[in-house]
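Final report, section 2: Outcomes. Of the targets proposed, Poly(Beta-D-mannuronate) O-acetylase is the one most frequently requested by collaborating groups, and we therefore present its record in full.
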Amino acid sequence: MFGTGVFFIISGLFKKAVISDYISVNFVERIFDNPALYSGVENLFGVYGYALQIYCDFSGYSDMAIGFALLLGFRFPMNFNSPYKADSITDFWHRWHISLSTWLRDYLYISLGGNRKGKVRTYINLCLTMLLGGLWHGASWNFVIWGGFHGIALAAQKFWRNLLHKPKTAGSKGIRKFFAVLVTFNFVCFCWIFFRNTTFEASVVMLKQICTAFHPEVFMQLIEGYWKVFVLMGIGYLLHFAPDSWQNACCRGVVKLPLLGKALLLVVLIYLVIQIKSSDIQPFIYFQF
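The predicted structure is given below as tokens.
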């Protein structure tokens, strides 16, 4: 348990302090603070950057909590299960912030009647649950819209499955799965625009820039100017989309290291954090809710 705990602490610290904080301070915040100043391609990569930032922030916090609990002899369940690998919005909510989605299901969705009162009521309950979940994050139209989009998507998927009489376990395979993951990921990223922006107007401006002022010719300049950010984004997404067997192999490798090896690994990571860390302390995003 000690070795596994060290692995989760290292994983969480890397996600939060190396990836999330760096791309936030050096790229994402600049785009979201004033999207009108940037082209559509810059705004789009800002959205993809935020999707990675919030995942690494949330899951990094959870990983470190799991790691420290293991060091003390306690076992906490996983809270994030590679959510951007989801091939549907329902699958996404089975993987994203599992403790929150479980709470929403048990205390809101089921309390509203769940799927026990007919198909139409089920669709309404899904929408209401996610609307209330959005409001839980804050009394802002942006959170309501974010929750509303997720609720509509969940209801639409439920309606489609009922229409085709598909079982719950039926999933996509092969090239269909690839496109299902791609569509789900981009839908979730689209919703993050409303979650991250402080006003509805800012979200509209960002979407307008992406749709009407894309300017792909600035892409190479963007890469050259923010190459460190894009390297970290590449590493972050590579680690996220890598097969689960890779993470399991890394965990086993850390577990097998002698105590001195584990200590050296932590020292190297802390040194790396110090080297790239911004001067501003970046609190965990979830602390604001």
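The chain has a mean pLDDT of 90.
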